[in-house]
Design a protein that fits this description.
The protein has 301 residues and is α+β, with helices and mostly antiparallel strands. It is built from 9 helices and 16 strands. The longest helix is centred in the last third of the chain and has 14 residues, at 227-240.
Length: 301
């Protein structure tokens, strides 16, 4: 097979691991910086160009698109889809998962467990919004934040009001969520490939840090998940339309709740924590499922 990896750099752990796994299985691989692609969107014969050459004859592409390049990155993925190339993560699924508000609404509609969450534009009803999620302490999140950036734990009503008003004063969209104290500053990342959880790890924040992101200095270890956690993670990925996903869960007193569904989950942390060949499993999935024009979401929003 000829596989394209859409990534800003071959030096990134996930990109390098995927390329090595594909080459080891006899596939031809090209790493493509999606921001350097340009496209002919003519309806009768869509095409993509990269470094002056037309990209042709790909059997599959693996999008590794960062949050800051979602708009253009998904446009490139969509163009490959129009050309009949199989994409491991479809453009519609990526945009769904990157919109925190939309993804939570879709998950809630299907009955997936979530933290109590509020969303508002005006600061006139800040006190009501805080009451809606059970009062302080609570979590305030920027919709555009990633890797724990733009996430604040407000421990008092006054602190919550001040942070909400400050974010709204910058015209930023925010979510307000209940604080799951019983999670103890830890979450669980379930790595989904197809309809299976192939690996799971528990991430814990460094001392004094409520965020468990590995980028923020947290640490991870392999963890055994419950049947309810497994089912929740698989269903969350399916609702987003993702073949590969990192589903982040918290263990609450009322069962597992989903914090986020990541369409481009990093491989380094989960590989090191579980000693599993995650990249190899992804390539195996592509080998079994890639086919021209094969999509799950079929262009639906």
């Amino acid at each position: 097979m000829k596989i394209g990896i859409l990534s800003r750099s071959i030096r990134l752990f996930s990109t390098k691991a995927l390329k090595e796994a594909a080459v080891a299985r006899g596939h031809k691989v090209q790493v493509i910086d999606h921001l350097k692609c340009y496209m002919d969107i003519t309806s009768h014969k869509p095409a993509i160009y990269y470094k002056g050459e037309k990209l042709e004859d790909f059997d599959a592409v693996i999008p590794r698109i960062g949050a800051s390049t979602t708009f253009y990155g998904t446009a490139v993925v969509r163009q490959f889809e129009m050309m009949g190339v199989y994409s491991l993560a479809e453009s519609v699924a990526i945009t769904r998962s990157r919109d925190k508000l939309r993804s939570l609404q879709l998950l809630a509609r299907k009955g997936i467990g979530l933290p109590v969450t509020g969303f508002a534009h005006s600061t006139h009803y800040t006190d009501d919004l805080i009451k809606l999620v059970g009062g302080a302490p609570l979590i305030i999140k920027l919709l555009e934040g990633t890797q724990g950036i733009g996430v604040v734990l407000a421990e008092t009503q006054q602190a919550a009001s001040s942070v909400i008003e400050a974010f709204r004063g910058l015209n930023s969209n925010i979510l307000v969520q209940e604080y799951i104290k019983e999670a103890g500053g830890s979450d669980i990342r379930c790595f989904i490939i197809g309809d299976k959880v192939v690996a799971s790890m528990q991430r814990s924040g460094k001392k004094g840090e409520f965020r468990s992101n590995l980028h923020r200095g947290g640490h991870a270890s392999s963890v055994k998940i419950t049947p309810a956690e497994r089912t929740t993670a698989i269903n969350a990925a399916r609702i987003m339309g993702l073949n590969v996903a990192g589903v982040d869960l918290l263990r609450s007193n009322h069962g597992p709740v989903v914090m986020e569904v990541n369409s481009s989950p990093g491989l380094e942390g989960i590989t090191n924590a579980t000693n599993k060949d995650i990249a190899g499993k992804i390539i195996e999935f592509i080998e079994k499922n890639a086919a021209p024009g094969k999509t799950r979401t079929r262009g639906k929003g």
